[in-house]
Design brief:
Blueprint lengths: L2 H25 L12 H7 L2 H8 L1 E6 L7 E2 L6 E2 L1 H13 L2 E6 L5 H6 L5 E7 L2 H6 L1 E2 L4 E3 L1 E6 L9 H4 L3 E5 L3 H8 L3 E5 L2 H10 L4 E5 H7 L9 E7 L3 E7 L5 H14 L2 H8 L9
Parallel strand pairs: 1-4, 1-5, 9-10, 9-11
Antiparallel strand pairs: 2-3, 5-13, 6-13, 7-13, 8-11, 8-12
Protein backbone atom coordinates (compact mmCIF):
# COMPACT_ATOMS: atom_id res chain seq x y z
CA UNK A 1 0.00 0.00 0.00
CA UNK A 2 1.42 3.38 -1.03
CA UNK A 3 2.27 6.07 1.49
CA UNK A 4 -0.42 8.36 0.04
CA UNK A 5 -3.14 5.76 0.58
CA UNK A 6 -1.95 5.04 4.12
CA UNK A 7 -1.98 8.78 4.91
CA UNK A 8 -5.50 9.11 3.51
CA UNK A 9 -6.81 6.20 5.59
CA UNK A 10 -5.23 7.65 8.74
CA UNK A 11 -6.80 11.04 8.08
CA UNK A 12 -10.26 9.50 7.69
CA UNK A 13 -9.82 7.51 10.92
CA UNK A 14 -8.76 10.61 12.86
CA UNK A 15 -11.75 12.59 11.56
CA UNK A 16 -14.15 9.79 12.48
CA UNK A 17 -12.71 9.47 15.99
CA UNK A 18 -12.97 13.24 16.44
CA UNK A 19 -16.62 13.23 15.33
CA UNK A 20 -17.50 10.44 17.76
CA UNK A 21 -15.71 12.26 20.59
CA UNK A 22 -17.57 15.52 19.94
CA UNK A 23 -20.94 13.75 19.64
CA UNK A 24 -20.43 11.87 22.88
CA UNK A 25 -19.22 15.00 24.58
CA UNK A 26 -22.40 16.86 23.40
CA UNK A 27 -24.64 14.17 24.84
CA UNK A 28 -22.93 14.49 28.20
CA UNK A 29 -23.66 18.23 28.49
CA UNK A 30 -26.15 18.98 31.31
CA UNK A 31 -29.74 19.73 30.25
CA UNK A 32 -30.79 23.41 30.37
CA UNK A 33 -34.52 22.59 30.83
CA UNK A 34 -36.14 22.91 34.25
CA UNK A 35 -36.58 19.73 36.33
CA UNK A 36 -39.92 18.04 35.77
CA UNK A 37 -40.93 18.41 39.41
CA UNK A 38 -39.77 22.01 39.95
CA UNK A 39 -43.09 23.79 39.39
CA UNK A 40 -46.25 21.90 40.38
CA UNK A 41 -47.88 25.14 41.61
CA UNK A 42 -48.22 26.73 38.18
CA UNK A 43 -49.95 23.59 36.87
CA UNK A 44 -52.30 23.59 39.84
CA UNK A 45 -53.12 27.28 39.28
CA UNK A 46 -53.89 26.56 35.64
CA UNK A 47 -56.58 24.12 36.76
CA UNK A 48 -58.23 26.63 39.11
CA UNK A 49 -60.15 29.66 37.85
CA UNK A 50 -60.07 31.03 41.39
CA UNK A 51 -56.27 30.93 41.48
CA UNK A 52 -56.10 32.30 37.92
CA UNK A 53 -58.24 35.32 38.86
CA UNK A 54 -56.27 35.90 42.06
CA UNK A 55 -52.95 35.67 40.23
CA UNK A 56 -53.89 38.44 37.78
CA UNK A 57 -55.59 40.50 40.48
CA UNK A 58 -58.92 41.10 38.74
CA UNK A 59 -62.24 39.50 37.87
CA UNK A 60 -63.27 40.36 34.31
CA UNK A 61 -67.07 40.44 34.00
CA UNK A 62 -68.85 40.22 30.64
CA UNK A 63 -71.94 42.45 30.44
CA UNK A 64 -74.27 44.38 28.15
CA UNK A 65 -76.23 47.58 28.77
CA UNK A 66 -79.17 46.17 30.72
CA UNK A 67 -80.88 48.34 33.29
CA UNK A 68 -81.43 47.63 36.21
CA UNK A 69 -78.77 44.89 36.17
CA UNK A 70 -75.81 46.57 34.41
CA UNK A 71 -75.71 50.15 33.17
CA UNK A 72 -73.47 53.23 33.31
CA UNK A 73 -74.06 55.91 35.88
CA UNK A 74 -74.43 59.20 33.98
CA UNK A 75 -72.42 61.24 36.48
CA UNK A 76 -69.52 58.90 37.32
CA UNK A 77 -69.42 56.89 34.10
CA UNK A 78 -69.00 53.74 36.20
CA UNK A 79 -70.96 50.53 35.70
CA UNK A 80 -73.69 50.15 38.32
CA UNK A 81 -76.82 48.03 38.75
CA UNK A 82 -77.90 45.04 40.76
CA UNK A 83 -75.57 42.65 38.93
CA UNK A 84 -72.71 45.16 38.63
CA UNK A 85 -72.78 45.96 42.34
CA UNK A 86 -72.97 42.27 43.27
CA UNK A 87 -70.01 41.51 40.98
CA UNK A 88 -68.00 44.32 42.57
CA UNK A 89 -68.75 42.96 46.05
CA UNK A 90 -67.84 39.41 44.97
CA UNK A 91 -64.52 40.59 43.54
CA UNK A 92 -63.77 42.34 46.81
CA UNK A 93 -64.55 39.10 48.65
CA UNK A 94 -61.96 37.36 46.44
CA UNK A 95 -59.42 40.11 47.15
CA UNK A 96 -59.24 41.34 43.54
CA UNK A 97 -60.43 44.29 41.45
CA UNK A 98 -63.43 44.07 39.12
CA UNK A 99 -63.34 44.99 35.42
CA UNK A 100 -66.49 45.22 33.28
CA UNK A 101 -66.27 44.43 29.57
CA UNK A 102 -69.14 44.98 27.14
CA UNK A 103 -69.64 41.87 25.02
CA UNK A 104 -71.71 40.84 22.04
CA UNK A 105 -74.26 38.62 23.75
CA UNK A 106 -74.20 35.97 21.05
CA UNK A 107 -70.41 35.61 21.54
CA UNK A 108 -70.48 35.21 25.33
CA UNK A 109 -69.34 31.57 25.38
CA UNK A 110 -66.50 32.27 22.91
CA UNK A 111 -65.33 35.21 25.05
CA UNK A 112 -65.55 33.10 28.19
CA UNK A 113 -63.62 30.12 26.85
CA UNK A 114 -61.06 32.40 25.20
CA UNK A 115 -60.46 34.06 28.61
CA UNK A 116 -61.43 37.50 27.34
CA UNK A 117 -63.77 37.47 30.35
CA UNK A 118 -63.98 35.36 33.51
CA UNK A 119 -67.76 35.26 33.87
CA UNK A 120 -71.05 36.37 32.31
CA UNK A 121 -73.03 38.33 34.88
CA UNK A 122 -75.82 40.17 33.12
CA UNK A 123 -79.28 38.92 33.96
CA UNK A 124 -78.48 35.69 32.12
CA UNK A 125 -81.31 33.18 31.80
CA UNK A 126 -80.37 29.65 32.87
CA UNK A 127 -81.43 27.88 29.70
CA UNK A 128 -80.46 24.27 28.97
CA UNK A 129 -77.94 25.51 26.38
CA UNK A 130 -76.33 27.88 28.88
CA UNK A 131 -76.07 25.18 31.54
CA UNK A 132 -74.55 22.77 29.02
CA UNK A 133 -71.89 25.27 27.89
CA UNK A 134 -71.00 26.92 31.23
CA UNK A 135 -70.47 26.22 34.90
CA UNK A 136 -73.36 28.19 36.37
CA UNK A 137 -74.17 29.57 39.79
CA UNK A 138 -77.40 28.84 41.61
CA UNK A 139 -80.38 30.91 40.43
CA UNK A 140 -80.65 34.24 42.25
CA UNK A 141 -83.50 36.07 40.47
CA UNK A 142 -86.80 35.15 38.82
CA UNK A 143 -87.68 36.62 35.44
CA UNK A 144 -89.92 36.23 32.39
CA UNK A 145 -89.87 37.19 28.73
CA UNK A 146 -92.51 39.83 28.02
CA UNK A 147 -93.91 41.52 24.93
CA UNK A 148 -93.55 45.30 24.72
CA UNK A 149 -95.33 47.56 22.21
CA UNK A 150 -95.91 51.21 21.42
CA UNK A 151 -98.34 52.40 24.11
CA UNK A 152 -101.08 53.15 21.55
CA UNK A 153 -100.98 49.55 20.22
CA UNK A 154 -101.15 47.64 23.51
CA UNK A 155 -104.96 47.33 23.57
CA UNK A 156 -104.96 45.60 20.18
CA UNK A 157 -102.56 42.81 21.25
CA UNK A 158 -103.94 40.57 24.00
CA UNK A 159 -102.82 37.04 23.20
CA UNK A 160 -99.89 35.07 21.82
CA UNK A 161 -101.98 34.49 18.70
CA UNK A 162 -102.29 38.26 18.24
CA UNK A 163 -98.49 38.49 18.34
CA UNK A 164 -98.12 36.36 15.23
CA UNK A 165 -99.13 39.29 13.02
CA UNK A 166 -96.28 41.46 14.41
CA UNK A 167 -92.64 41.91 13.43
CA UNK A 168 -90.46 41.59 16.55
CA UNK A 169 -86.98 42.83 17.45
CA UNK A 170 -85.00 40.41 19.65
CA UNK A 171 -81.47 40.28 21.01
CA UNK A 172 -79.03 37.84 19.38
CA UNK A 173 -78.66 34.62 21.36
CA UNK A 174 -81.20 35.68 23.98
CA UNK A 175 -84.12 34.01 25.72
CA UNK A 176 -86.30 36.51 23.84
CA UNK A 177 -85.12 35.08 20.54
CA UNK A 178 -85.83 31.56 21.80
CA UNK A 179 -89.40 32.59 22.68
CA UNK A 180 -89.89 34.18 19.25
CA UNK A 181 -88.74 30.96 17.58
CA UNK A 182 -90.80 28.74 19.89
CA UNK A 183 -93.99 30.70 19.16
CA UNK A 184 -93.44 31.05 15.42
CA UNK A 185 -93.11 34.86 15.51
CA UNK A 186 -91.49 36.91 12.76
CA UNK A 187 -88.39 38.62 14.11
CA UNK A 188 -85.21 40.58 13.40
CA UNK A 189 -82.10 40.03 15.51
CA UNK A 190 -80.27 43.02 17.02
CA UNK A 191 -77.20 43.31 19.24
CA UNK A 192 -78.84 44.17 22.57
CA UNK A 193 -82.23 44.37 24.27
CA UNK A 194 -81.81 48.15 24.37
CA UNK A 195 -81.44 48.06 20.57
CA UNK A 196 -84.67 46.05 20.41
CA UNK A 197 -86.45 48.81 22.32
CA UNK A 198 -84.98 51.41 19.98
CA UNK A 199 -86.36 49.46 17.03
CA UNK A 200 -89.85 49.66 18.53
CA UNK A 201 -89.52 53.33 19.45
CA UNK A 202 -88.45 54.23 15.91
CA UNK A 203 -91.19 52.13 14.33
CA UNK A 204 -88.73 49.81 12.56
CA UNK A 205 -90.22 46.86 14.45
CA UNK A 206 -93.76 46.45 15.75
CA UNK A 207 -92.77 44.95 19.09
CA UNK A 208 -89.93 43.49 21.11
CA UNK A 209 -89.44 40.59 23.50
CA UNK A 210 -87.31 41.53 26.51
CA UNK A 211 -86.74 40.56 30.14
CA UNK A 212 -89.51 41.65 32.50
CA UNK A 213 -86.94 43.14 34.91
CA UNK A 214 -85.54 45.27 32.11
CA UNK A 215 -89.02 46.30 31.02
CA UNK A 216 -89.80 47.44 34.56
CA UNK A 217 -86.77 49.74 34.57
CA UNK A 218 -86.59 50.97 30.97
CA UNK A 219 -90.12 51.05 29.56
CA UNK A 220 -93.05 53.39 30.30
CA UNK A 221 -93.63 56.79 31.84
CA UNK A 222 -90.55 58.44 33.30
CA UNK A 223 -88.09 56.23 31.39
CA UNK A 224 -86.03 56.63 28.22
CA UNK A 225 -88.72 54.69 26.33
CA UNK A 226 -91.81 56.48 27.58
CA UNK A 227 -93.78 55.76 24.38
CA UNK A 228 -93.46 51.99 24.87
CA UNK A 229 -95.56 49.91 27.23
CA UNK A 230 -95.31 46.39 28.62
CA UNK A 231 -98.20 44.08 27.78
CA UNK A 232 -99.62 41.40 30.08
CA UNK A 233 -98.24 38.73 27.75
CA UNK A 234 -95.57 36.67 29.53
CA UNK A 235 -94.09 34.06 27.24
CA UNK A 236 -92.31 32.01 29.90
CA UNK A 237 -91.00 31.85 33.44
CA UNK A 238 -87.24 31.73 33.98
CA UNK A 239 -84.35 32.25 36.39
CA UNK A 240 -81.11 34.22 36.28
CA UNK A 241 -77.68 32.82 37.04
CA UNK A 242 -74.00 33.68 36.52
CA UNK A 243 -71.89 31.72 34.04
CA UNK A 244 -68.24 30.66 34.32
CA UNK A 245 -66.00 28.42 32.23
CA UNK A 246 -67.06 24.77 32.33
CA UNK A 247 -65.61 23.12 35.43
CA UNK A 248 -64.70 26.45 37.06
CA UNK A 249 -64.34 26.48 40.84
CA UNK A 250 -65.57 30.09 40.89
CA UNK A 251 -69.21 28.97 40.59
CA UNK A 252 -69.13 27.24 43.99
CA UNK A 253 -67.32 30.24 45.45
CA UNK A 254 -70.09 32.54 44.18
CA UNK A 255 -72.80 30.27 45.62
CA UNK A 256 -71.12 30.65 49.03
CA UNK A 257 -71.07 34.43 48.52
CA UNK A 258 -74.78 34.45 47.62
CA UNK A 259 -75.65 32.45 50.73
CA UNK A 260 -73.62 34.78 52.93
CA UNK A 261 -75.14 37.91 51.31
CA UNK A 262 -78.67 36.61 51.79
CA UNK A 263 -77.99 35.73 55.40
CA UNK A 264 -76.55 39.14 56.33
CA UNK A 265 -79.27 41.01 54.39
CA UNK A 266 -76.89 42.86 52.04
CA UNK A 267 -78.26 41.19 48.91
CA UNK A 268 -81.85 42.10 49.74
CA UNK A 269 -80.85 45.68 50.53
CA UNK A 270 -79.14 45.92 47.15
CA UNK A 271 -82.20 44.45 45.43
CA UNK A 272 -84.34 47.16 47.02
CA UNK A 273 -81.95 49.83 45.73
CA UNK A 274 -82.54 48.69 42.15
CA UNK A 275 -86.19 47.70 42.49
CA UNK A 276 -85.74 43.97 41.95
CA UNK A 277 -86.61 42.77 45.47
CA UNK A 278 -89.75 40.96 44.25
CA UNK A 279 -87.65 38.92 41.81
CA UNK A 280 -84.97 37.95 44.33
CA UNK A 281 -84.76 34.21 45.08
CA UNK A 282 -84.18 33.73 48.80
Amino acid sequence: MSKKIIALVLAVLVAAIGFVFVACNGNEEPSTSAPADSSDTSAAAADSDLEYVKSKGKLVVGITEFKPMDYKDKESGKWVGFDADLATAFAKELGVEVEFVEIVWDNKIIDLNGKNIDCVWNGMTLTDDVKAAMETSKAYCNNAQVVVLPADKVDSVKTVEDCKKLNFAVENGSAGKEMAEANGFKFTEVLTQADALSEVASGTSDAAIIDSLMAGAMVGEGTGFATIKTTDIKLNSEEYGVGFRKGSDLAAKLNDFFAKSLEDGSMEKLAETYGVQEALIK
